[in-house]
Design a protein that fits this description.
InterPro entries: MoaB/Mog-like_dom_sf (IPR036425), MoaB/Mog_dom (IPR001453), MoeA-like (IPR038987), MoeA_C_domain_IV (IPR005111), MoeA_C_domain_IV_sf (IPR036688), MoeA_linker/N (IPR005110), MoeA_linker/N_sf (IPR036135)
CATH class of the largest domain: Alpha Beta
CATH architecture of the largest domain: 3-Layer(aba) Sandwich
EC number: 2.10.1.1
Cofactor: Mg(2+)
Bound molecules: ligand LQZAQKY5, molybdate ion
Distance between the termini: 30 Å
Number of helices: 7
Number of strands: 26
Shape: elongated
Function: Catalyzes the insertion of molybdate into adenylated molybdopterin with the concomitant release of AMP.
Largest sheet: 6 strands, mixed
Family: Belongs to the MoeA family.
CATH topology of the largest domain: Molybdenum Cofactor Biosythetic Enzyme, Chain A
Radius of gyration: 30 Å
Strand content: 25-35%
Length: about 375
Amino acid sequence: MHRGWAEARRIARDAVKPLEAVELPLGEALGRALASPVRALVPMPAYDNSAMDGYAVAGPGPWTVVGAVRAGGAPYAGVLAHGTALEIATGAPVPAGTRAVLPVEHAVHSGRRVSGTVASGKHVRRRGEDWPEGAELLTTSTTVTAAVLGAAAAVGHDTLLVHRRPRVSVVVTGDEVQTSGLPRPGRVRDAIGPLLPGLLRAAGAEEHGLVRLADQPDALTAALTDDDADVVVVCGATSKGPADHLRGVLRALLADVRVDGVAVRPGHPQLLAVLPDGRCVVGLPGNPFAALGAGLTLLMPLLTELGGHREPAPVTAWAAEPLPAHPSDTRLVPVVRSGGDVTPVGHDRPGSLWGAALADALAVVPPGWRGGDVELLPLP
Ligand SMILES: Nc1nc2c(c(=O)[nH]1)N[C@H]1C(S)=C(S)[C@@H](COP(=O)(O)OP(=O)(O)OC[C@H]3O[C@@H](n4cnc5c(N)ncnc54)[C@H](O)[C@@H]3O)O[C@H]1N2
Ligand code: MOO
């Protein structure tokens, strides 16, 4: 039975749990999901310091300059006395007794004395004013971005506890599929093998290997059996023709088929199954645009969940032109974005990736849709 588009995606997410946690140096954690919260190991700022290059001043001015302190230099020993000032660099520790920091461009110099106007407390960053020690800065499941790495380093972390990335094997089937050069009559260039690594990377997964098989059940059985990836993606062989062996092979392997077809165009023959040992199999239709649509429908949510990532918030946009709705199925339509609007690009037959290659996203057009906002699946 074909599942509805949203239902199929929910089943894919619910089919798995996040993979185990690994502790990695910051430099290796980018793109993974946090397996535990990031807490501040130190307060921020860690000590009272100057927000400006200028003078730390004590009491009312004018002030006699009694020394200088640079960021990274030795802090000023002792308490700054009333009527004195310390030349200070941005980020350098302010001594006890500091009333404020007078920015250098506001200071009037007269020999060893400076004067100027500055409100009490101005330009001093107090210890812990951004967050106290122990504060939970980022929750579990946050995807590690460049900014997350910087924030984690700033509060003292050298490593992060993150989920292991899903390993994905790819099996491209088809007697007619060739991997290089101009396709001869009766042959077709593999368009799915080259498309998948980008999709896997965008989902935070890693490609574990790619094999190409003729349309032959024993070879497919062996490929699904002799494999230690978390997910096997089989391209082609999802339909009902004499060369389409995936369903029969899954039955023989006693797989639990969770999704057997999705009410979506293109991509309706896609499927999701769980093998007895817990590994998942995702079947992508052979038509390349259908394979892309199915990759975004079932494979992406599955990998997002396995990697421990939060479900991304839906992105919506206004359809500036009518999008072709189907009476009973969801349609995935390549669109370009401009401001808050989307416009279809056409060239979107199931066998053609031209439209998708021109597009920024696939618009999710619900059955019977009559205009308005649509959800977008960004194209990686
Ligand atoms: N009787 C029915 N026939 C078909 C149905 C159906 O419901 N009933 N569905 C059609 C739809 S929709 C799709 S999509 C395809 C799915 O077929 P398969 O997943 O079994 O894939 P193949 O039959 O092997 O190939 C379909 C098509 O795609 C070309 N192909 C295959 N692999 C690649 C590749 N790696 N790169 C580029 N092109 C590829 C292949 O040559 C065929 O033209 O079934 C329909 N039929
Ligand atoms: O739906 Mo097929 O999956 O149209 O190409």
